[in-house]
Amino acid sequence: MGRHHVRILGELADAELIGICDRDDQVATAISEEYGCPTFATLEELAERVDAVVLAVPTVEHAEIGVELLGRGLHVLVEKPITGSLEEADALVAAAQHSVLAVGHTEFFNPAVQRLIGLGVPPGFLEVHRMAAFKPRSLDIDVVLDLMIHDLQIVHALDPSPISEIRATGINVLTERVDIASVRVALESGCVANVTAWRISAESMRKLRVFLESTYYSLDYERQTLRGVKLDLDSPDRQLVPHNPEVERGEPLRLELEAFLRACRGEPSRIVDGQGGRRALKTALRIADAIEGRETQDG
What we know:
Shape: globular
CATH architecture of the largest domain: 2-Layer Sandwich
Helix content: 25-40%
Number of helices: 9
CATH topology of the largest domain: Dihydrodipicolinate Reductase, domain 2
């Protein structure tokens, strides 16, 4: 992900890309040559030159490095998940008292997701399928923290009510951690979300289906489309009519970085902040407990 952040930040007119730091010299050199940005031998050298940092490192290092950067008064966008534990997430949030802390839930900035959230209608039922081909990265975490957490954060954005029950199952296939997970999340509002994530699929699929009052939508993350039908309550035979809200396409990561920069400048901006990232992590960890048989109805 770091390479993509560098590409976009180097293109934005309202930010100056100062440089990168990577412990792998070959990676740092390759990215530096590709995008024409300086490299720094140490994080300390880079931190002295900048106002904000994108932290795209293994999850196990998010808290230690993030707390150090926030302690310097820098704004930080940390890739998802925010951390690997709630204690580490709390440390990051506490360190961000005078800085912006954003969490890289890129799918939240998918234009189709933003359009759906903008409708402002609470969902009654959601069904999500996220299937990705196997990639030898992010294997320090399971599929729930790697992929499903995107959808958990969006579920909470659509319906912020507390969780009443979680039921989950999962198996490992190609790694030592869970690679396939299927989850049922019930919220106190009455909404239920069925969420499935695979990271060993032969083909990619990222879709969300949501049922609202008298309306159904199918959201395609990859195509950035929102297609639906609505019950015409004014018609004598209560017909279903198409209802396809227009979506202006855009690159979610670019939109995320633009929102982060606005927040850094103190401008109104919708980001996934530290608390939002922590909540998604808390739900993901509860799912992990449920898979292991440790989850109870009240969590």
